[in-house]
């Protein structure tokens, strides 16, 4: 009597879905992949399979891997894992295998974007700067997951919704950038007071971040005459006058000004007539 040994291997398919569905994921995010391993001949799920994952050819150990039964498997992916540290697009391959079944492979492409912060280091908000001056703004662009500065970023600046070109923009490295602002730049126009500068930092495969910096734009002024004047001898009980003009450097008079005496060692009582 002869026996014939026949090996029957089940045909399979593997379908995956991602939750939440996004065009990209930040490097601080966690997302889930549901894999369904199916016996195509019987049209039923396959339990107890071995699930192997690799990212760009390197073995990847997910945050968790759970067999729900009936052919469903949940894979939890942590985007802050070092395997994603270069950010950008990754090829993730998911293999499902079980004895007496053909293995099934699914490839998925995920875009991991670095999560960032942008911090103003100096100067303080609402700092005053007078026409004719320039000042520096120092910012720090940081990768949250890797806790490191981001070099080579694009720094864009706008004032009142229009692109602003600073006097200079310098990348010191390690995420530090210096921006030099000209208080007299024509884009500020003739408007003085509190002005807002919007600063945006961006780099490929990192999320864009913006901050506002508010400074007090002031016009330079002068008092004429601006030299010491000898008021002469004054009899007690009488008044003596000192007339001066307070104007900006464009010779426009300034009204409703606040004033005070800087040095009054002789007990004079002062009042102002405009």
Task: List strands and helices in order, with pairings.
Blueprint (H helix, E strand, L loop, with lengths): L11 E8 L5 E2 L3 E10 L4 E2 L4 E6 L2 E2 L4 E6 L2 E7 L9 E10 L6 E10 L2 E7 L4 E4 L3 E10 L4 E2 L4 E6 L2 E2 L4 E6 L2 E7 L10 E10 L6 E10 L2 E4 L20 E4 L26
Describe the 3D structure.
The protein is mainly β. Strand 9 and strand 10 form a beta hairpin. It is rod-shaped. About 2% of the residues have low confidence.
Pick out its properties.
22 strands, Immunoglobulin-like, Bacterial Ig-like domain-containing protein, 2 domains, 0% helix, single chain, 274 residues, five-stranded mixed sheet, five-stranded antiparallel sheet, mainly beta, rod-shaped
> Which word captures the global form?
rod-shaped
The CATH topology assignment of the largest domain is Immunoglobulin-like
Largest sheet: 5 strands, antiparallel
Secondary structure category: mainly beta
Radius of gyration: 35 Å
Using the 3D structure, state the CATH architecture of the largest domain.
Sandwich
The CATH class label of the largest domain is Mainly Beta
Distance between the termini: 128 Å
Helix content: under 10%
Number of helices: 0
* Count of domain modules: 2
């Amino acid at each position: 009597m002869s026996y014939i040994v026949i090996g029957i291997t089940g045909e399979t398919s593997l379908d995956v879905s991602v939750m939440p569905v996004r065009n990209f994921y930040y490097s601080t995010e966690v997302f889930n992949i549901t894999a369904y391993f199916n016996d195509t001949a019987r049209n039923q799920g396959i339990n107890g399979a071995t699930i192997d994952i690799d990212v760009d050819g390197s073995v990847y150990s997910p945050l968790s891997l759970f067999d729900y039964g009936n052919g469903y498997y949940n894979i939890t992916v942590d985007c802050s894992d070092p395997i994603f540290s270069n950010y950008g697009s990754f090829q993730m391959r998911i293999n499902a295998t079980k004895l007496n079944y053909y293995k099934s492979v699914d490839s998925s492409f995920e875009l991991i974007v670095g999560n960032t912060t942008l911090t103003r280091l100096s100067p303080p908000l609402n700092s005053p700067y007078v026409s004719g001056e320039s000042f520096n703004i120092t910012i720090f662009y940081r990768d949250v997951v890797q806790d490191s500065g981001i070099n080579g970023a694009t720094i864009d600046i706008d004032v009142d919704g229009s692109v602003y070109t600073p006097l200079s923009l310098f990348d010191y490295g390690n995420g530090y950038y210096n921006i030099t602002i000209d208080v007299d730049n024509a884009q500020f126009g003739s408007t003085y007071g509190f002005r807002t500068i919007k600063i945006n930092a961006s780099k490929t495969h990192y999320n864009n971040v913006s901050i506002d910096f508010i400074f007090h734009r002031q016009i330079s002024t002068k008092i004429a005459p601006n030299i010491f004047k000898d008021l002469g001898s004054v009899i007690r009980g009488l008044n003596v006058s000192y007339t001066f003009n307070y104007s900006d450097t464009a010779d426009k008079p300034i009204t409703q000004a606040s004033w005070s005496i800087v040095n009054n060692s002789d007990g004079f009582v002062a009042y102002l007539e405009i």
